[in-house]
Design brief:
Largest sheet: none
Distance between the termini: 15 Å
Number of domains: 1
Mean pLDDT: 93
Strand content: under 5%
Number of helices: 5
Order of helices and strands: HHHHH
CATH topology: Four Helix Bundle (Hemerythrin (Met), subunit A)
Structural class: mainly alpha
Shape: globular
Low-confidence stretches: none
Number of strands: 0
């Protein structure tokens, strides 16, 4: 697979995760908060990895968004503005897989979607070969 196709897949998978989160939020009542937040974390993770890949950095097989963000900041210091969002979203990468680990409320869900969306928009505006 060529580089542009692999980059397209990173971006596409990230968009699918965010679309799933929004769909779950809009159609399920009560909302499956843990799943929505997990999909937002996954979207942010894949977008950060897409940015790294687009800048010739092999994305590491990690799920910690602050660690990925540091790598992005090394390329573009403007990523620093996402430090709080990445710290917030990271907890949804693993903990929702275990019962009673998180107490998620409606504000958390709204924030997760908003943060994933803002990371996506910033990444896409900073990838030149997408």
């Amino acid at each position: 697979m060529d580089k542009s196709e692999e980059l397209r897949q990173w971006i596409s998978h990230a968009e699918e995760n965010l679309s799933i989160a929004k769909h779950l939020c809009a159609t399920y009542h009560p909302t499956p908060d843990e799943f929505i937040c997990n999909q937002c974390q996954q979207s942010a993770e894949k977008n950060l990895k897409a940015f790294l890949f687009a800048n010739d950095v092999e994305p590491p097989r990690i799920h910690n968004l602050p660690d990925l963000l540091i790598m992005c900041i090394d390329i573009n210091p403007n990523f620093v503005k996402f430090a709080k969002q990445c710290a917030f979203l990271t907890e949804f990468g693993v903990l929702p897989k275990y019962p009673n680990e998180l107490q998620i409320n409606d504000d958390d869900v709204k924030s997760a979607i908003r943060f994933a969306e803002s990371i996506k928009d910033f990444v896409l505006s900073n990838i030149t070969s997408a």
